[in-house]
Amino acid sequence: MADLRGSVVVECVGPMTLIEVEDVRDRLRDSLGSAGRVEVDCSEVGETSICFIQLLLAARTSAAGRGVSLHLKQPLSASMRDALERGGFIGMSGPARKADEFWIGVP
């Protein structure tokens, strides 16, 4: 998971519903404690529930408190992008909003 440069990629594959997020939570917690940069790969995420999005928001807050850089690798899966749009986390059309940056990788 971690390499010698202090960077970690946490891969999320398949459905991300209440049952599956426990494993991701544990991997994120371990990664935030051992690396300076954590990237979450959501390109293979299937069904996406709000609990997964909440987990990522909590991880983002925890990372900031620890001085760890947390980013989502791009592109996101279509299912996750759809869940983010339906939840209002990213805009459905038009230019990116400031609030979209974490989710869609806008610098």
UniProtKB/TrEMBL annotation:
<dbReference type="Pfam" id="PF13466">
    <property type="entry name" value="STAS_2"/>
</dbReference>
<dbReference type="InterPro" id="IPR002645">
    <property type="entry name" value="STAS_dom"/>
</dbReference>
<protein>
    <recommendedName>
        <fullName>STAS domain-containing protein</fullName>
    </recommendedName>
</protein>
<feature type="domain" description="STAS">
    <location>
        <begin position="1"/>
        <end position="107"/>
    </location>
</feature>
<dbReference type="InterPro" id="IPR058548">
    <property type="entry name" value="MlaB-like_STAS"/>
</dbReference>
<dbReference type="InterPro" id="IPR036513">
    <property type="entry name" value="STAS_dom_sf"/>
</dbReference>
